[in-house]
Amino acid sequence: MFKYFLKRIFFAFFIVLGIATLTFIITRLAPGDPSMMYLSPEINHEIAKQIRENYGLNESLHIQYLKWLGVIPPFEGIVQGNFGYSFLYHRPVKDMIMDVLPNTLFLTSTALIINFLLGFLLGIYSAYNVNKKSDKIISSISIALYSMPEFWISLLLIILFSLLLGWFPSSQIHSTNYEDYSFFGKTFDYLKHLFLPILVLGVFSSATTIKYMRGGILDILQKDFILFARMKGLSEKEIFFRHVLRNSLNPIFTLIGLYFPFLLGSSVIVEYVFALPGIGRITIDSIFARDYPIIITTTIISAFLVIIGNLISDILIILNDPRQRKNFR
């Protein structure tokens, strides 16, 4: 099993490199380039040529790629840990990513925890009250939430809780006088600004988890070994914790690997709507500005997080169900 995960990590390196290479080629072949931000009909052709030369955009594609990797002079590429310089923000990409990555990781990880806790508890409750009024209410709400797009929910929450009630901020990551607060004041202000985005990503996306948990438990409850356990005189509590719960968790653990790319994609929309300084927002801004270094770096980070999510999913499945170990050799 250990060899299996080493093999996964080894191939993950080539997967990330392949995704980054494909992104590099696509961005270079797309119409336009970063120099267009500075060009206008009044600018002399020689000046435009000089701008492209300063950015290294006048070189052939394979030379640009090798320089980006850092395998040819001046040896300042990703191999050396240099992800380039942002054309849009005029800062090293590494510094920009380190500024915004914690916000995105906190947003998505908190949303993921809330998603699974809520989906886990409501799914169990719904399954053990199948076809009752509470089950129908939970199922109906889940379907309704699943049908709502994130940007629409975000706008509704901003209108309700920010504009009408004034309970939560509608944008940004902290208040303008953030530096004047104490440690606890800063923490409260930070969480207050992230409450609505976390609500969108965590609560409103838990509908799928609820349905999976409910369906998994209902399926397990129909198995013969559950009937046999009841015939032995085991209590419903013992049956649930010893038989039902563990056997119904594998589909939920599989969802973790699927939710990482889903939450990352959704965070792009949510961060943009709430004007949060995160990976998603700077990615959107960089796409419009054709800021190649940031686009490629955020793609690498996203690919890396998706691979990590799938590895975590596999590990949890193995820990929960030792029978699955034969599938991970």
Architecture overview:
There is one protein chain. Helices cover 71% and strands 0% of the residues. The protein is built from twelve helices and no strands. α1 runs antiparallel to α12, α10 packs parallel to α11 and α11 runs antiparallel to α12. The protein is globular, with a radius of gyration of 25 Å.
Quick description:
This protein is mainly alpha-helical.
Layout of helices and strands, plus pairs?
Blueprint: H1 2-29, H2 45-55, H3 61-69, H4 93-127, H5 133-147, H6 150-164, H7 183-203, H8 207-221, H9 224-231, H10 236-273, H11 279-289, H12 292-320
Helix pairs in contact: 1-12, 4-5, 4-7, 4-8, 4-10, 5-8, 6-7, 6-10, 8-10, 9-10, 10-11, 10-12, 11-12
What descriptors fit this protein?
MetI-like fold; 12 helices; 329 residues; mainly alpha; 2 domains; globular; 71% helix
Count of discrete domains: 2
In the CATH hierarchy, the architecture of the largest domain is Orthogonal Bundle
Q: Label the structural class.
A: mainly alpha
Determine the mean pLDDT: 82
Q: Could you state the order of secondary-structure elements as H and E?
A: HHHHHHHHHHHH
